[in-house]
Structure formats: C-alpha cells, structure tokens
Amino acid sequence: MDNKKLDTIFHSLIKDISGGNGHWQFILGDTQIICLTDELHNRMRLMAPVIETKEMTPSEMTACLEANFHTALDIKYAISDDVLWSVFMHPLKELTERQVEDAIQQVYAGAQNFGSSYSSSNLYFPTKEDRKNRMN
Predict the structure, then answer these.
(1) What is the percentage of the chain residues whose pLDDT exceeds 70?
(2) C-alpha span between 21 and 67 (Å, rounded)
(3) What whole-number distance in Å separates Cα of residue 128 and Cα of residue 9?
(4) Is 106 in contact with 75 (CB distance < 8 Å)?
(5) 125 pLDDT above the threshold of 60
(6) Residue 86 — φ and ψ, nearest 5°?
(7) Which of 12, 72, 127, 134 is 20 to 30 A distant from 23 in Cα terms?
(8) Are the C-beta atoms of 31 and 46 separated by less than 8 Å?
C-alpha cells in the first residue's frame, strides 16, 4: 500500500472526500474521519474525534481503557490535544484494501459506541466478569 493506492481506495468508497497525498478527511454518518500517512516511516493512522476530555467522566475514561483490551479490537481509544479519538494505526506498506475498509468501519463504530458498548465490532474478548457469569 502507498498513498496513491490509498487515495484510489478512498475515492472508490467515499463520495465526498477532501485531501490527498497522505492527508484525507471525510464524513461518515455524522462522524469526521481523518487519515494521515507517512510513507517514509511506513505508518498510517485513521482516526475520528469522539469527545473533548474535559467532558468525560472518570468512569468513561476507565471504560475506554477496558475497551482497548476487550471490545475495541483493531482500534484503540487514545487522547491527544485534549480530545479522545477512535484510532486505527498500521504499517502502511503491509496494509491491504480489505483492512482499509474494515478500519473505516471500526473507527466509525468506536466513535459511535462511545458511552455504550465501547466496541468496534460484534467481536469481543470476554472479561473476568463475563467468564464468571458463564460459570453460574
């Protein structure tokens, strides 16, 4: 994968997209999604802003960290510049078209599911409480 191929993929999937050559932006539903790449360092980051950290409760912060382990899967919740983000990071060259499509959906789902399931898909790794409840 490179910026040229990524640009082709984005334009085939998304009607209204701006940017190019390592920086793209688009809206999916009501969620802004941004993609940044660095070909020199072989990195790609797809992300969506979720909420300003000053608006988060301590329990929401904890839920995000737990989600990073159990339900966020290929995305992570991360904080930068006082904003919580739903973020997918991957080496650029090794990225496949299918992974790009899946990353868009997971970043979107992570942003949408903040405050509820904190999940990026239907798959999750069970918590200690989940395992305990299965035994009872």
Answers:
(1) 90
(2) 32
(3) 40
(4) yes
(5) no
(6) -95, 115
(7) 72
(8) no
CA atoms of 9 and 6, how far apart (whole Å):
5
Going by C-alpha positions, the residue among 30, 21, 27, 13 that lies closest to residue 114 is: 30
What is the three-state SS of the chain?
A: CCHHHHHHHHHHHCCCEEECCCEEEEEECCEEEEEEEECCCCEEEEEEEEEEHHHCCHHHHHHHHHHHHHCCCCCEEEEECCEEEEEEEEECCCCCHHHHHHHHHHHHHHHHCCCCCCCCCCCCCCCHHHHHHHHC
Sequence-distant (≥ 6) Cβ neighbours of residue 49 within 8 angstroms: 32, 83, 84, 85, 111
| pLDDT tier, 3 (very low <50, low <70, confident <90, very high otherwise) | very high
Residue identified by tokens 């080496």 is 91
Say which residues have a Cβ less than 8 Å from residue 11's Cβ, sequence separation at least 6.
17
